[in-house]
Amino acid sequence: MSTTSNSSQASASPGRWERVRDSYMWYSFKRDRTAQLCLAVFICMVIAAFASPLIAPTNPYDLAQIDIMSSELPPFWIDGADDRYALGTDAQGRDLWSIVLYGTRVSLLIGFGAVILQALLGVTFGLMAGYLGGRVDTILMRLADIQLSFSTLMVAIVVGALVKATMGSAFYSQYAVMMLILIIGLAEWPQYARTVRASVLAEKNKEYVDAARVMGLRSKRIMFRHVLPNTMSPIFVISTVQIANAIISEAALSFLGLGMPETHPSLGSLIKSGFDYIQSGSWWITLIPGAVLVVLVLSINLLGDWLRDVMNPRLYKG
Amino acid sequence: MIAFLIKRLMHAILVMFVISVLAFAIQDNLGDPVQQMVGQSVPESEREEIRERLGLNDPFLVQYARFARNAVQGDFGYSYFYREPALEVIARHLPATLELVFAATLIIVLFSVPIGVYSAIKPRSPISRLFMGVSIIGISIPVFLTAIVLIQIFAIGVTVTLFPESTGWGAWLNAFFSTEGNMPSFGRGYDLVNVVGNWDTNLATWNGLQHLVLPAVSLASIMLPLFIRLIRAEMMEVLQSEYVKYARAKGISMRRVYFVHALKNTMLPVITVGGVQIGTMVAYTILTETVFQWPGMGLMFLDAINRADIPLIVTYLMIVGVIFVVTNTIVDLIYGLVNPTVKLTGKPA
């Protein structure tokens, strides 16, 4: 997150690296151990997740590599562990380490995808509402209000449930990744729209906007090329939080059985399938993916906290 | 005030109208009621006759008008699974959810206010830092995971053998971190007391309360960090304000300044956020009730989805819609009452 925002800040061609190095953001990053640790953890997890076909000792999607006889083996520090499976196996005999890697990849994919969709919808609607004002503003914001008052998770659950009921579970699980991106993206766009609208309202009476208008530029160009770049920092701040939220929403939907199927599990569906075995003492099937989920979300949230502190000048005083 | 009330009421009616149209569209498009009612062998001509008799061939608007008229009178149709009026099924499951939400709210209020205020007054103390650290971890743990961890620790039990058993302190530490796991984690228990109608309460007996503890704590765990952070942030802002400095300068005791002068204005945004969070709370009851098999509305809704029990799904959506709209309206009204500076009729700034 922070590397992209660094480079976007330093968009001028000469001495891009110098500008990054001299920026307040880099200064604050150098001094903040928590942010460094979180970024390191987050990057490691992303790399491990997306390199999972290379790293993982087994391919959990390949039925030939699964041995039901070696199911519910504990992780290495407990008696009865098998050397082949460092973190143990789940109820179907899949290597937990491999499947957690693959699951993290699915979770991240859905999280990023949903946030990109939210941002596209939310930024467009927020710009329109803020810049055009009037009736467009009223309708869009009323819609956002209603949707937010229902809570995004509730909207996602209801939409997920209805889509699943209409299309049938087989179809739903076949296109689960696309479905989840769509559902979470559609459910959470109001967050972006509100943030963008608020900063557009602050920006749009400034002189550079007037200048652009006097020059006779079309409002679409003014919106996207002049106003939007100046609303980027709040967008970055909420993007981090929104990625964390999207990952949690995906996990929640999967836990309710409205998300990824068990054959292509995300972290949420791993937790769900493991939960059925917790009473029989195999806690690792559910708690290891759970711990991975918490570490992932926590590192994103802490990065978001740091980013907000850096980018929000109001907090300098406090 | 009256103008504001009417405006809010119009808004509420508009929202309910949108929800009911959506709900009806769902009912209209999902599944074929005739297929649910008759067997495979019934010929097409007879099915057509039933369709005609039930008015399923009428135009959309006519059908919607009938649906809305029935809904206003409390008739949401029959649940396919329970074979009784959908509203009655909801009414039977409602008390369990309300008690769960009530208990969770109680936990949130009892803990968030003192912790939030303390960490605002002493932002640099180690205890405040601990609370803030724990609260960001709390935000990052999904509610169902908290529930699972609680079940593992308090219902199943943890046996720690991390420390060497041979030494005295090792054995003591092992025993200290191990838990027995005798808390109930499944359903509402056997010892429910009937209050009135179909409201059986968990709050009257020891067994009932025991069953309530883990679900309520799980449900509270997701909101508690949020409110702690919110109260802390608002309180810190209020403590910077002139009138607090003035009250301090007058020599009023610090306790009075904090809890009478400052806390009042801290609670204003908390009320608004609290109202909005009720919606989130309903969503989280679905998750919590699923984990603990708590027989409330959330679990019923999920079962209804898995059984494709469309009248029940639609009724649930309508009832939840009513709950949202009513709470949001009440929150707005309370906000207007406690904060007279808010322009009730005017547009928000």
Automatic annotation (TrEMBL), chain A:
InterPro entries linked: BP-dependent_transpt_permease, MetI-like, MetI-like_sf, OppC_N
GO BP field: transmembrane transport
The ABC transmembrane type-1 domain, residue ranges: 104-304
Signal peptide: none
Transmembrane segments: 37-56, 106-131, 143-163, 169-187, 227-248, 283-304
Domain of life assignment: Bacteria
Keyword terms: Cell membrane, Membrane, Transmembrane, Transmembrane helix, Transport
Keyword set includes Endoplasmic reticulum: no
SUPFAM superfamilies, per database record: MetI-like (SSF161098)
Membrane topology listed for this record: Multi-pass membrane protein
Stated name of the protein: ABC transporter permease
Organism annotation: Vreelandella glaciei
UniProtKB/TrEMBL annotation, chain B:
Domain ABC transmembrane type-1: from-to ranges: 94-335
Ranges annotated as spanning the membrane: 9-27, 100-118, 130-163, 212-231, 314-338
Main localization of the protein described in the UniProt heading: membrane
A Gene Ontology BP annotation from the UniProt entry: transmembrane transport
Assigned GO CC terms: plasma membrane
Compartment annotation: Cell membrane
Top-rank taxon: Bacteria
Pfam families cross-referenced by the UniProt entry: BPD_transp_1, BPD_transp_1_N
PROSITE patterns noted in UniProt: ABC_TM1
Keywords: Cell membrane, Membrane, Transmembrane, Transmembrane helix, Transport
Membrane topology value: Multi-pass membrane protein
Entry similarity comment: Belongs to the binding-protein-dependent transport system permease family.
Name of the protein in its database record: ABC transporter permease
